[in-house]
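Q: Two folds, back to back.
A: First:
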Amino acid sequence: MTMVTSYARVGDEIVVRGTRAGVVTRDGEVVGLHHADGSPPYDVRWADDGRVTLYFPGPDAEIRHLTRWPERKREPEAAGGVT
């Protein structure tokens, strides 16, 4: 069983670094999700050729969150004994 350690949202950037000499770094934008929780795989539009592909990130990939995660809703505080 593999453990998912990265989550993405539409609009995030994925950067894939080359693991060998001569391998070019590649980047793209997440344009689609297949799971509501943001776990892989992702639909990525690659910057170098504009193609959209299904992408499963490996250990050489980094997700850059370009927008803030939505704030979690806080429970209202209980009324404190004031009458």
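A: Second:
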Amino acid sequence: MRGYLISVGQFEDLVAQEMYREPGAVGIDVDAVVREGMVRVGDGRYETVVCLGEREGIPVLTCTAPWDPATVELRRPAPRYLRMLVEGLRESHGWDAERIHSYLVGLPGIRGLWDAAELDALIREE
């Protein structure tokens, strides 16, 4: 995981952009998110704001979809998205291609949607 120290306004703009809205269109009550652990700020797919804890007294927030992956039909992730995950696993954990493949191949959203050889080729791309 990589975190960025940004202002509440910047985070609100990021959430708005994830929902294809104009910056400034989403307001987030950070105190409520910290207190409740999770707050829905809209009905869209990335309008659930979650507090993952704190780091050095600063709330660590993310936005995500409100549904349980077991209850929705998952779509095949784009190669560009998977490459971002692969690079993140390499950088943050120092994992090699075999370890990354072993981890990703069994995940919901990958399993059954990506052929193991095709996934391996994507992981080994430079």
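Q: And?
A: The CA atoms of residues 19 and 104 lie 26 Å apart.
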